[in-house]
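User: Hello, can you help with two protein structures?

Assistant: Certainly.
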Amino acid sequence: MSDPATGTISSRLLPLLQQLRQVAGEKDRDRINRYILDTLAKLYGIEDGAIYLYFLHGNQHWLAINAALTHRDGEREISSIDPYQLNVHARQELEGLPHLQTPLQEGTRYLEESPHWQLLVYPLLHKDTPYALIELQRATPFAADELEELDQFIGILQDHLNLVRYAETDTLTGMLNRKTFDENLDRVLASVHECDAESAPVSSEQRHLPPEPGMIWLAVMDIDHFK
């Protein structure tokens, strides 16, 4: 007769590996985020979760939700926001959010427990610098074997995301490369066309009104003839 703990781990291991195979074959960050939250909800009973992008603007530390997991009326919903379409209103300051500040500062997993909920937060690091957070929440406590599995799962995800990040950037400047620009521009323009198709025709008077917050702008600059 097998040990109950071993049986529990085995029952999750195969589907976990199957999901990792799917994620490893993906290069699109939106689909990767969905795989992550969907997998953790199915295998670990995560009820609420979010993937935040972290960035520093001046002296202020900001987070912006990139994907979110919620349960409504017994149904699981996963929503995502294209990081290239985030606006200033989607950001939130880190001040007053110790459960998110701590993993960013320490670069390690953060666990907070109460009688009614369990909160688990993982930072995602690139060259030891945090750039994102994965926040997970459920009602029941996380067992030691679950935490060990999640540590390994998030570690593999981080390695894969860093490979995706490497493929998206120019090694000399560290900026997004031309291939990444083309792919994301196509996606942004497609979303604009969808909105245009759903909206009413624009009158000549509306064309001269100030731009609305959700509008997309493209600026092209030649920096010292650097191509």
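That covers the first. Now for the second protein you mentioned:
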Amino acid sequence: MRRVLPLKIALASLLLVVACVTINVYFPAPAADRAADQVINDITGGGAKSTTTPPQSYFAPAGDDEHGLLLVAMGRVLVTLVPAAHAQDADAALNVSSPAVNRIKSSMAARFGQMEKFFASGAIGLTKDGMVDVRDLNAVALPDRATVKRLVSEDNADRAQLYTEIAKASNHPEWEADIKKSFARRWVATGAKPGWY
């Protein structure tokens, strides 16, 4: 009888915890950075690498004692009863390979070769909000100025659409601003070459 009472208390506590679980869907910043690196690499043909983290166990045995095994068992029951309470798999959190995203990446990749020389000359540069801006039109030959303006305009339209489409494809349109911030950081960190603005 004495052994049954702690078990009843443990089960009641477990049910209370299960009843109080709140599922929060947060913006997965590390996954967004990895997704941004992958997209930027696809666009620039650069060497940005994506890294994955293996899943971690939430529970480790506390030893061979009876209470440790009971805690491990309770933890496993909790994970079984509430599987959706933990965050999504980090690599699956952002969808960067939907048809719309792939179309935009292809468009940007085709344009990137033309823009690269203008980045290198300082005529254009990356902005803090993940876009491209004309910095110094005087660094461009007069016949090429209209081309530079067109390239920047087209690229910015694709960038804005890219961030929107990634948010939509990931089923979290509310993440668009956060995705844009992640891409802005990662464009500078992995997409820009030394000397670019």
